From TrEMBL, chain A:
Keywords from the named record: Electron transport, Mitochondrion, Transport
Pfam family, any one: ETF
InterPro entries: ET-Flavoprotein_bsu_CS, ETF_a/b_N, ETF_b, ETF_beta_N, Rossmann-like_a/b/a_fold
Electron transfer flavoprotein alpha/beta-subunit N-terminal domain span: 24-216
Similarity-based family: Belongs to the ETF beta-subunit/FixA family.
GO MF: electron transfer activity
Localization terms from the record: Mitochondrion matrix
One GO CC term on file: mitochondrial matrix
PROSITE patterns reported for this sequence: ETF_BETA
Protein name: Electron transfer flavoprotein subunit beta
Gene3D superfamilies per UniProt: HUPs (3.40.50.620)
From TrEMBL, chain B:
UniProt-listed Pfam families: Acyl-CoA_dh_1 (PF00441), Acyl-CoA_dh_M (PF02770), Acyl-CoA_dh_N (PF02771)
Top EC group: oxidoreductase
GO biological process, one term: branched-chain amino acid catabolic process
Protein name, as recorded: Isobutyryl-CoA dehydrogenase, mitochondrial
Assigned protein family: Belongs to the acyl-CoA dehydrogenase family.
E.C. number: 1.3.8.5
Taxonomic superkingdom: Eukaryota
Length: 253, 419
């Protein structure tokens, strides 16, 4: 019986209209509604389901960031995780934080907690990196089952059906392993009122990246953030020849 | 009327993730985005969790269906049972009989959030909760164990029967009699405007066991299919169409004395105690509708253009929106304060509940009505949710004690105070 680490990221709520800061250094986050990354919700749901099937013993929800991320950990606890770990990162470190730093943290935690599975969302809806799962597996030298739309545990192995461009691919990997959740893996449950109340009593441990021996220095520097260009009106043409001429004129062909 | 296409419905097919593909159209509930009216302000972390969950449930399970439930007059039993599985069947009922054991403030927050998905269904949920609480609070062990667990899971549904054709505001003058015959009461009379009537299983009936006035009234639980219990026709209403409303008719309806809640003569008191909480809940439903309408109006103003600019550039509309937001926040504060007063057993609780019901149902109706006006002609179409919010919350100014009766209660409290 084993322990699963689930990563949950606090992101700007999907329904919010994103605005770029006037200095183009990033997007406005102050006073903006945040919630758990939808793919992380799916990851939590999968972990909790595995626990309910008694295939794993304990689910630990992990989040990296300032104090506010504890709200996201609490939501994960209310969905059924057993305990949480809050890795404190704030200020400039938090702004520069990316998949590489997170995967180093997860790799260190996986060893510390003796986890057999790490389940993450396939990507976050704010940066759309789709890298953390893969990097974590590489750092640990563990197999990875990414874009999972179906997960079955079979003894010491995991059968993963992956959504790929050509269709569905089924692989069998040994544990310990890293999985990343895709959209159709499951439908996340609503936390029930009793579970929300029980979550209050569950523990969230606090630590810093330095405690795990992780350096948070970023190798990536964000130069500028802009909105996508506003959509221009189209042009109507009368004949196919006109169309070809126009496409040639603007360099498309 | 200009083609609806020119005024683009704000359809944002945000990339297909999350619970299901969520088309954020003009009819859907918004997720608390404008920060000055954010209903999460001032709440504890735990309350924010309840609220978030209730908002999610409302957005996913209720909002997409609210128009259909209204048009086809569907009583959404399955959706309410799903809500019950999350703990919404007995929110302030004690856990030992299956309830969630939460406070009045928690309850208000939850109903406010659910109401953004469908006012009518949430209002019925609140009535069901009120009945459940009455049995939990005034029932003996047998009664609590018999009814509350099933009501909490919504395996059974409840109705509150006080009003009669001849006694609305003057509730204490009710005429339904309950004559003691051996170990049974024989009930005769009729109740009017009963929410859920005919489709629910458990009827909390206020009836006269003694003399005239409130002291002669007792509270009796009548189960569906009891011989002598029948129903009138389903009423056709302006709103609240996702719950059936019928007259409840009692003709020599025999119920065991063991079905009486509390003592003989205590019935009116039980009914009024139930209504104190019920008033907060109804006011909370109005709040949710107003919150949804302010967001809808805001979004419309940002999109609709006339005279070469968006309506949001028009100062009159900006000011109107600001007034709506201010009244919304003021209403919310009053309801939450009333909820706190009730759960703490403060001496001003009854007056505050009445004040909250009076102020909030009136103000929120005005907010929704104003939001409809801001939509122009589109506001009148059933394609747009704003008209349903207006129709649904209109009745909140009437039931659970008309706003005129609320004034009576408050005036009495003011004028009878000594010193």
């Amino acid at each position: 019986m084993s322990r699963v680490l689930v990563g949950v990221k606090r992101v700007i709520d999907y329904a919010v209209k994103i605005r770029v800061k006037p200095d183009h250094s990033g997007v406005v986050t102050d006073g903006v509604k945040h919630s758990m990354n939808p793919f992380c919700e799916i990851a939590v749901e999968e972990a909790v389901k595995l626990k309910e099937k008694k295939l794993i013993k304990e689910v630990v929800a992990v989040s990296c960031g300032p104090t506010q991320v504890t709200e996201t950990i609490r939501t994960a606890l209310a969905m059924g995780c057993d305990r949480g770990i809050h890795v404190e990162v704030s200020g400039k470190d938090y702004e520069a934080m990316g998949p590489l730093q997170i995967s180093k943290i997860f790799a260190a935690l996986a060893k510390k907690e003796e986890a057999s599975l790490i389940i993450l969302g396939k990507q976050a809806i704010d940066d759309d990196c789709n890298q953390t799962g893969q990097m974590t597996a590489a750092l640990l030298d563990w197999p990875q089952g990414t874009f999972a739309s179906e997960v079955t545990i079979d003894g010491e192995k995991v059968k993963v059906v992956r959504e790929i461009d050509g269709g569905l691919e089924t692989i069998k990997i040994s544990m310990p392993a890293v999985l990343t959740a895709d959209l159709r893996l499951n439908t996340p449950r609503y936390a029930t009122l009793p579970n929300i109340m029980k979550a209050k009593k569950k523990k969230i441990a606090n630590m810093k990246p330095a405690d795990l021996g992780v350096d948070m220095v970023s190798r990536v520097e964000v130069l500028r953030v802009d909105e996508p260009p506003t959509r221009l009106a189209g042009v109507k043409v009368e004949t196919v020849d006109d169309l070809v001429a126009k496409l040639r004129a603007n360099g498309t062909i | 009327m200009a083609a609806v296409g020119t005024f683009s419905r704000v359809v944002r097919l945000s990339s297909c993730f999350g619970r299901r593909c969520r088309l954020i159209s003009n009819s859907a509930q918004r997720r608390g985005i404008a920060s000055c009216i954010d209903p999460a302000h001032g709440l504890s972390d735990e309350q924010k969790e309840f609220q978030k969950m209730a908002f999610d449930f409302a957005a996913n399970e209720m909002s997409p269906h609210m128009a259909e439930w209204d048009e086809k007059e569907i009583f959404p039993v399955e959706t309410m049972r799903k809500a019950a599985q999350l703990g919404f069947g007995g929110i302030y009922v004690q856990p030992e009989v299956g309830g969630s054991g939460l406070s009045r403030l928690d309850t208000s927050v939850i109903f406010e959030a659910l109401s953004t998905g469908c006012v009518s269904t949430t209002a019925y949920l609140s009535i069901h909760n009120m009945c459940n609480w009455m049995i939990d609070t005034f029932g003996n062990t047998e009664q609590r164990e018999k009814y509350c667990p099933e009501l909490c899971m919504m395996d059974k549904f409840a109705s509150y029967c006080l009003t009669e054709p001849g006694s609305g505001s003057d509730a204490a003058s009710l005429l339904t009699t309950a004559k003691l015959e051996g170990d049974h009461y024989v009930l005769n009379g009729s109740k009017a405007f009963i929410s859920g009537g005919g489709d629910t299983d458990v009827y909390i009936v206020m009836c006269r066991t003694g003399g005239k006035g409130p002291k002669g009234i007792s509270c009796v639980v009548v189960e569906k299919d009891t011989p002598g219990l029948s129903f009138g026709k389903k009423e056709k209403k302006m709103g609240w169409n996702s719950q059936p409303t019928r007259a409840v008719i009692l003709e020599d309806c025999r119920v065991p004395v063991t079905s009486r809640l509390g003592q003989e003569g205590q019935g009116f008191n039980i009914a009024m105690r139930g209504l104190n909480g019920g008033r907060i809940n109804i006011a909370s439903c109005s709040l949710g509708a107003a919150h949804a309408c302010v967001q809808l109006a805001r979004d419309h103003l940002l999109v609709r253009k006339q005279f070469g600019e968006t309506l949001s550039s028009n100062q009159f509309l900006q000011f109107k929106l600001a007034e709506m937001a201010t009244k919304l926040v003021a209403s919310r504060l009053l309801v939450r304060e009333a909820a706190l007063a009730l759960q703490e057993g403060r001496s001003d609780a009854v007056s505050l509940c009445s004040m909250a019901k009076l102020f909030v149902t009136d103000e929120c109706f005005n907010i929704c009505n104003q939001a409809l006006q801001m939509h122009g002609g589109y506001g009148y179409l059933k394609d747009y949710a704003v008209q349903q919010f207006v129709r649904d919350i209109r009745v909140h100014q009437i039931l659970e004690g008309t706003n005129e009766v609320m004034r009576m209660i408050i005036a009495r409290s003011l004028l009878s105070e000594s010193g």
